Amino acid sequence: MPFQTSGLHHVTAIGGDPRRNADFYLRALGLRLVKTTVNFDDPGTYHLYYGDESGRPGTLLTFFPWPDAPTGRRGTGQATTTAFSVPAPSIGWWRDHLTAAGVDVGPVVERDGENVLTFSDPDGLELALVAHPQGDPRSPWDNGHVPAEHAIRGLHSVTLSVTREDATAGMLTEDLGLRLAGEEGDRFRFAAGEGGPGATVDVLVTPDAPRGLVAAGTVHHVAWRAPDEPTQAAWRDELLGRGVGVTSIMDRQYFRSIYFREPGGTLLEIATDEPGFQIDEPLLELGRALKLPPWLEPHREQIEAVLPKLDVPAENDLERA
């Protein structure tokens, strides 16, 4: 395979009430809302992007929050756990912090030499905080809700649940350029490059689990990084040549995207690192205003009329943090 991803770009999930969603990710988890826009295919709902200070690839969890969305079901054919990276000494702090916020957290467990704390967001999306023993060099988003020394550094990994691993493993290694980095029971770890936080996917074999249902509280797709548009276009041609069903290149304003499914059923994306989130608002004000693509701008008044107002804390603006 001539193309290799450098790691995760973002994870996109389905949420319920957008105000509850923003409150949890901004205040309980201390992420920054780096872009407030809409689902380009359904502009009657938001598309909310949470990440670090500038929304760098590898730090992003995004949501399509539908207030009346039915509850989904975790199962095979899905990314069933989204994990964030935190400093090793901070797991205990996070357990106490989340408990105080009313979140039902599990015990801290050790897996692959890392401490893992698992919990769910208000819609039931399964999340984890992972402390990598060698640390994570990425800078945190320094805000008023989570002290910088404990703050999330970015995505750590995702877990794909499958009924069998062979075909999924083949796509991860042959089409995304990942390598098998470890195996423990029914869990297989794959890594991009040197691996570590932001460059890892676990494949969990659960043959007796039900098939997942994508709705509120589940992951819609997992995106992997491509450095630029020419690389993405060549990558798409390579995938098509290998018989993979791939979409056309789609303009997502802040990156370009192609989509395809891995054999186990999870929807994957290859997204470009460019152009980023500062193309339509300055770094200091990311996420504060509703941003629409040019083709939806003429309908702004109608779109704003149906979207609920979000309570975005002042600390989301750098100049007020």
TrEMBL record:
InterPro entries: Extradiol_RC_dioxygenase, Glyas_Bleomycin-R_OHBP_Dase, Glyas_Fos-R_dOase_dom, VOC_core. PROSITE patterns: VOC. Residues 7-132, 154-273 form the VOC domain. This is Glyoxalase family protein. It comes from Amycolatopsis arida.
